Amino acid sequence: MTVFSRIQLPAATAARPAPLQMGEGSIAVTTRSLTFGGQPWVPVMGEYHFSRDRPERWERELRKVRAGGIDVVSTYLLWILHEPEPGALRWDGHLNLREFVQAADRAGLKVIIRIGPWAHGETRNGGFPDWLQALPIKHRTNDPQYLDLVRAWYTGIAEQVQGLFHSAQHPAGPIVGIQVDNELYDEPGHLATLRELAESAGMKAALWTATGWGGAQLPENRLLPVYAGYSDAFWEESTTGWPSFGPMHFTFSTVRDDLSVGADLRDVPLEGTGVSAEHDPWPFATCELGGGMQVAYHRRPLVEPHDVAALALTKIGSGSSWQGYYLYHGCTQLPGTQESHATSYPNDLPVRDYDFAAPIGLAGTLRPHYHLLRRQHLFLEAFGRELAPLPSVLPIGEDPVRWAVRGEGEAGYLFVNNHQPALAPLEDVGGVRFEVAAGERVVGIPVNPVRVPAGAYFAWPLRQRFGDIPALTVTAQPITQIVADGRTVVLFAATPGIDVELQLEGVAVELVSGAELEPRGAELIARPHGEPGLGCEVTVGATTLVFLDEAGANTVWKGEIDGRESLVLWDGTAWFDGGLHIEVPQTDQPIAVFPPLAEREQKLSPGTVFTSYVVTGEATLHAVPAPQFHEIRSAPVRTGGSMNRFSAPTDADFAALPAVPVEVPVQALTGEGPALLRLTWVGDVIRLYAGDRLVADQFWSGRPLEVDLSVHRDEIARAGLWARAFAWAPESGVYVDARVRPAGSEPVLSVQEASLQRIRTRILR
C-alpha cells in the first residue's frame, strides 16, 4: 500500500479585513475571501465582450452565462471602438454599455467593467484609438496630456453607467467592480491615478482590481491583484510543444502569479516564480483562467474541455476565492481591429474569429466544458460560503498523486488532480489512500486504497454537514443541494473508476436506507446499492443523497421555474427566464425535474427524487452540400511582426483565390432565432463571404467552423454565400497539435461535412 504524507489541518481562525482600500457597499475583502452581505462569497466570473456581439443577442446569451453557474460577467471597454475619431464618443448599437449592464442585471448577473484605457483583448493598439496611439505623448503614464484624454474617456463611461453601481445606498446596483488598465507592470503610481480619475468621474465601485501577473507592481493597498492561468498559449513560438508554464496550472500550489502571461509584449521577460499566498494579505483572485484558447496564425493550440475544467478545479484547491474565466463567451472581432503583424504585434490573429474555444462559442453553442464547469460552479454556489474562508493546505514533499485540502479545524474538502493535457498526460496512480488530521480525528479516505485513474480530477468533502448528516466524508464530489417538499436533496458526481463510499458520523443505522452498512467505531461506512445514476440514492432521515455518473452529472442545472427553485437534468442547451428555456432537440429526449413541473404528462423515473418527462423533438437540421475546392493552393510563406513569426495570408492573397459557393437553403434562414452553419473542414485558413462582405474566418486547428447566418440572411439571399480557403501545406512550420495535424506529403483542403441548423426554443413550466 502506498503511504501518503498526512495533511494536518490548521486550527480554525477568524478572517480579518484585508489591508485594501475598496469602495462602499455590502461587498468587502477579508484576508481569506470576499464577503457579500457579511457572508463569505466566491464570485464566479466569465468574460463576454458586449461590443463584439450583436445587441439583440445579449440577453439570451447572458442568460446562458448565468445558467452556467456564473454570477458575475466581466467585459472590456475597447476605446478604439467607442471613439474612432477624437471627441466623438459612441454608445449606440453594439456599443451600448448601459443596455448591456441592464441586460446582465435582468439575467441575474453582477458586472465588472474593465475600463482600460489600455485593454489588449487581442485588439489593435491594445484598444487605443489610432489617433491616440499616434499622439507624441507618454502613453500609460501620468503624462498630463495623456491623463486629460483618459479623464474624458472615463467621464464618458461614467455618464453611461450612472446609477448602476452597487453601493450602500443602492445595494441592488449590478456593477460591483472596476479593473483599471491591463497588464501594466511598472507604473504603480499611474494605476493609482487611474482609480482616482475614475472615482472623480463618478464611478464609485465596491471593488477595484488590476492584473497582478507578470510580477506587476501595484499601488499599495489601492487595487486587489487578480491573476491568470492558461493551459496553453497562442503567444508562444510555433516550435514550442506544451509550454513550460503549463504544469504549474495543473499542480496544487500557493504560487499565484504566472510570469509568462503577456511576456511576448514585454521588453524584458521575467524569470523565476511569481508571488505566492504567503506574500498576499488578501484572497487569491483570478480574472483570466483560460476558458479555452485563441489561435494565432503561427500557433494554434488545441485546448480540450477537461483541460479547462481540471485547471479550474486545481485553482480552487490551491485557494482561489474568485474564479474568473477569459473568455467565457466567444466573440467576433470587428474587421481591422484585431492584433496583427500589420500593427506591429508579434502575432497575426484572425480578422473576425475570436471564439477562443470558449465554453460558449461565438455563435452561442454550448461546448462540453460549459457543462463540466457548471458542475463546479453549482458546487461553489451551494457550498462556497463554507469553502471560501478555508486555507489551502498542501502535503509536505512529493506524493505520487497531486492533492491538497482546503480546510481548518475539523472539516474541509480534499482536492485531487491527475489530469494534464494530452501533450503531457499523467498516468494511473495505484494504492491511493488519503489521510487528513482534522482536529482530534484522522480521516482516512477511502477505507481501502484505490487506483486514481489517469485524467481524474475531483473534490471530496471531509466531515461536512449535509442536511440531517452532521459529518459526511464521501468519495464523490458535491454538485448542489435543494430543500423542497419537506426534504433536502444533495446531488453528487461519482468519481469515474472509484466506488462511492460514505463515512457517516453521528448517524444511527436505522436512519439510513439505500446502502450496505458497515459500523466501524464512531463511523458508519455506507456503500450505495447499485451503480451511480438517477436511482442511486442513499437516504438519511429527511436527507436524500443522489449519486450520478459522469454523464448524468454533466446534465445538472439549477434555477427558478415559475418562482420555485428547481433541479433539472437535461442533456442540451438551456437557460432560465421565468421558466426553463430549452433548445428543441432533433428527436424526442427525456428531461428530469425536481420538484415536479405543473400540468405536464409524467413518466416513471428511477429513484424517488426526480420526475421524468419527454421533450418532443423537431427536425431542424438541414443538409448542406459540402463546398468543393477544386483549386488547391497553399498560402504564401511570410514572416513578420515584432518577433518575426509566420504571417497570415492577406486580403490580396484571398482575392486571388476562386470563390466557392456554399449552397445553404435560404428559406431556412428566415424566421426567429439563430441559423447555425457548421463546417467540419481541414486546411489552413478559410473565409466566408455574404456576397463580397467578409462574415467569418478561421485558422484551422482541428475545430469546426460555426457561424450564425441569421443576421446575414438578406445579403445571402441577394448575393449568395461564398468560401475562399488555403490548403494546409505539409511542410508548414505553423504549430498545430499533433493529434490533428494532417499527415502526408500533399496539400490538404476539404470540407468533410456541412449542415445548417435552425435553432428553435421552447419553454417548460
Explain how this protein is built.
With 765 residues, the protein is an alpha+beta fold. Among the domains are: 11-292 and 322-340 and 353-387, TIM Barrel, CATH 3.20.20; 621-764, Jelly Rolls. It is 15% helix and 32% strand. It has eleven helices and 49 strands. The strands form 13 sheets. An eight-stranded parallel β-barrel has the order 5-6-7-8-9-10-11-13. This is Beta-galactosidase. Belongs to the glycosyl hydrolase 35 family. Residues 34-377 form the Glycoside hydrolase 35 catalytic domain. One of its GO terms (molecular function) is hydrolase activity, hydrolyzing O-glycosyl compounds.
- CATH T-level topology of the domain at 11-292 and 322-340 and 353-387: TIM Barrel
- CATH architecture of the domain at 11-292 and 322-340 and 353-387, by name, is Alpha-Beta Barrel
Q: Name the structural class.
A: alpha+beta
- Round the mean pLDDT to the nearest integer and report it: 95
Fraction of residues in helix: 10-25%
Which shape, going by the Cα principal axes? globular
Query: Residue ranges: pLDDT <50 for 5 or more in a row?
Result: none
Radius of gyration: 26 Å
Sheet-strand content, in percent, reads 25-35%
Could you state the CATH homologous superfamily of the domain at 11-292 and 322-340 and 353-387? Glycosidases
How many strand units?
A: 49
